[in-house]
Amino acid sequence: MFQGVSQLADLRVDSHTSYEHSTSGDEFQDAMSAVLEEELLQKIRQSGKFSIMFDESTDISVHQNLIMYIKILEKNNIDIVEPHTYFLSIDSLYRANADAIYCNVRDTLLRKGIYISNLAGVGTDGASVMTGCKSGVVTRLKSDTPGVLATHGVAHRLALSCRDGADDIPYLVKVQEILNSIFKYFSKSPKNTAMLEEMQKMTPGQSGKFKAVFHTRWLTFHGSVDALISNYSSLVSVFLEEKSGKSLSLYKPITYYTFLHVTHFLADVLLPLATLSKSFQTQDLDYTEVSALLHSAIQLIESAGKASSSNLGKFRKAAPEEPQVGEDGTETFEFQGHTIRDWQSRGRKQ
Fewest CB within 10 angstroms: 10, 182, 199, 314, which? Predict the structure, then answer.
């Protein structure tokens, strides 16, 4: 009503009967939900065959849940059949094992009057509890309905491949640890956050917040890397001004030429990968588009990898120039108004 939905004013009978109590709101939502669910079940019955996609998760109260979506076939206004995906249910799980998930899926379909014999496909995250050859959820569903096609979600496969590839490069694991340490340094301290914001005001063009980097979600690196590059000058100033052991321990690793070079390389590589991941998660993605999107991302990554320091590629921001090697073996380079000495380079073979 506060947002201008004038029709709701007609619910007011008198000063004592306004239907504005939270209980009334819950009843209205339940009534609308029942209508929407009945419309969806009617579409499912008309479709005949259907596919489901489900995954378990843990909410903020540390309770395990199973969320399920359903894909059906519908005719549009000119009788062309098109696939559409709808939210179906979310239920609590007493245990997130194969038996509990399988029983929940079967019970949900049975409760809604959806025949499991019409199941055509299943989409999961590819975990062993889902796809195990002996007692996985998909294996059990196939025993109920032979011929079911199982699919490991393409966006999830992309994220796993990026994570596994990064794990094979020890320095990328270290970069992740550095970014998480910077996130904790500011997220746990209002004083440090306020200091960074003041530094950003004095340096035009610097903005963005640091985010935690999750090992299982490697593509979230893009936002964190981009924030570090955009705020690099402010970070260096904050760490030097604070002069605490923690700040100096963060100042040292981010001023290595290797670290800056790798973060700029990641900014190039992760941008097309993050774009590809979002493209894979669109609701209207067609199977024939997957290959084209993948090859396009590969070409962009290859062009970024071939870029030299003098030709920084299509995406790369102003990366640090090649360092000058001094007589003592240290490398000195300029970056965003700072003259940085890479003491780590002393004695390093060219």
Answer: 10
Q: How many other C-beta atoms are found inside a 10 Å radius of the C-beta of residue 246?
A: 14
* Secondary structure (DSSP) of 3-50: TS-GGGGGG--SSS----SHHHHHHHHHHHHHHHHHHHHHHHHHH--E
> Is residue 311 predicted with pLDDT exceeding 60?
no
pLDDT in tens, 235-267: 887 887 777 888 888 888 888 878 888 888 888
CA within 13 Å, CB half, 21: 7
SS3 307: coil
* Percent of the chain that is helix, strand, coil (3-state, to 5): 55, 15, 30
Fold of 47-152: Nucleotidyltransferase; domain 5 (3.30.420)
Coil, strand or helix at 313:
coil
Q: Which residues pair with 69 in a beta bridge?
A: 53, 87
Q: What is the pLDDT of residue 122?
A: 95
Q: Where are the domains of the chain?
A: 47-152, 158-345
**Edge-to-edge strand ranges of the sheet holding 331-335:** 324-325, 331-335, 338-342
- 309 residue type, one letter: S
